[in-house]
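step 4 of 6: structure.
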Amino acid sequence: MLEIKNLHVKLEEEDKEILKGVNLTVEAGKVHAIMGPNGSGKSTLSYVLSGREGYEVTDGSATLDGRDLLEMEPEERAAAGLFLAFQYPVEIPGVGNMTFLRTAVNAQRKARGEEEISAADFLKLVRQKAKTLKIDADMLKRPVNVGFSGGEKKRNEILQMAMLEPRMCILDETDSGLDVDAMKLVAEGVNALRSPDRGFLVITHYQRLLDHIAPDVVHIMADGRIIKTGGPELALEVEQNGYADILAEVM
Amino acid sequence: MALPERKQSVTEARLAGLEIPRGGCTEPAREAALARLWQMGLPTRRDEYWKYTRPETLIQPQPPRAALLRTDEPPMFDAFDRLKIVFVDGVFDPQASDDLALEGVRIERIADLCEQDIHWARDLYGVLEARGHEPVPRPLAAFNTAFAGDGVVIHVTGRPSRPINLIYRHESEASDAVLHHLVRVEEGAEATILENGPAAARFNKCMEIDIADGGRLHLVRTQGRDHERRAATHVFARLGRESMLKCFTLTVNGVLTRNEVVVEFTGDEAVAHVAGACVGDGDFHHDDTVFVTHDAVGCESRQVFKKVLRNGATGVFQGKILVREGAQKTDGYQISQALLLDGDSQFLAKPELEIYADDVACSHGSTSGAIDEEALFYLRSRGVPEGEATDLLTLAFLAEAMDEIEDPALAEEIAGRVRGWLARHR
């Protein structure tokens, strides 16, 4: 489903290569995790895939269901089924959370040639999904992420994911800034969305998130490349020994 | 004291051949205004108060022509049940207007003022305007009082069931309109006045508003459509004890708009909110000049102005809060912000506070900035196309000003116009 081949990326502003040939395939129905030390390029990978400005792809390719992601605008990637849960969800004063969700849902429907969702259907759907994430009516009414706690922001990301029903979900350090209870809640939200035709790429520093979202495949990323790939046991190895051993082994 | 030569000559040029309307009971007030005008002279670029806005086209003898813009948009406030008072190029049009009878309010033409002998109106005409020249002269308002060709007197004694809508139609490309309105809100009375329309090629409008104790007035204005039009407007408001004024103005298009609002608190515990939103493109020039004087205890004033500028448009804000000695417990707030959608547009702001009381809370802020790129990417990453996302963020930027419109249906009407403008100018 998601296929990344030999992806090389540098910062637009400076001559510094951050991704140095990433190869990765995420199949439908699978959860892949990427772990790695700070500065290894994990977040850059998520930003490049979602179309953030400021990066230049110098080589390689990234496709979703065979469609070239790198040629698309961010909104086209979203309509094609890509979703990025932000590490730092953005606050948007003056835009109500409901307006935001509905605008996004309808924009994607429109891009796919589908009819807009009716106000009543939307309300019903959002209330039902919000409830399972323990998002109350007040949070839905407030401006997007404004005054939300760290946990509320991350739950709001998962709510967007649930509403937009993407094909491919990228979670960028969704566990950062969360206590154990908040993390469990978020993980439950993610697990509820697991399905045979949806893929996940979970980016994290720590193994603990993977206790709650069980990955099928674990990749270790360092210095802009994926240096090792294995099963869930690889995450446990990192937890016990840190990255040093793996890095030493590969280098 | 003699006027500077330049001022003297532009004033003479403008007033040459002009006669104040004779015969009515406003005549003494008009003569007094004319004398004031000769004393202060018409504005020139040398005046500090006209540093950011060029007054030449507002005072030259003939107005520059302004083309009429044809649009298939429904008229503003069309869906609202309201009492329509229509002026075409500055002249009252009885055929296009509704019957002026409405419970809780009495409406007359300025021209009929003397026949009816409405004392309060005679005692108000030009009075608040005359008070409004200290410390800054407003010669275009004095000009208005002297030469106004038409206008209405609105006397609110109860709670009229419908808003009163002053509609300014522009049909002649060379029209030069001068309108003067008087509004008196009696004790405990409350009304909503709506104003809209391009009015004329050049429009000089003055509204004097006197609100008695506990009276409430909502004033919602829109200035739009014909881009080549020019307008200089003044609102002079005096607020009694526990009274309220809420004034909101939306401006779209217009090569020159200068909106001056002068508010004076004379009774304690009164509230005045003056807000404005504008969206402009290209040679759009928009100036909000506001002066609020606190001369009573425990009054609240808010000035909220938001300007969206693109393709070289210019926004100006000159806002002042003056707190006189003894005006304790004053709560004064002022914010002016511009959203610059490109590098060519500019925002010129002069926020001022002058405070002579020691127990007050006053704050002011002024910023200009671009669209928040982070927020834009966030919206796009959720599938919202760039243009739509920019519009959404632009409306969010305007929200604080729009929130000053109390009636949700009116607020939605205004927001809809802004959305339409943004979509057409994407």
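step 5 of 6: annotate
 - Chain B has a mean pLDDT of 95.
 - Residues 386-402 of chain B form the longest helix (17 residues).
step 6 of 6: archive
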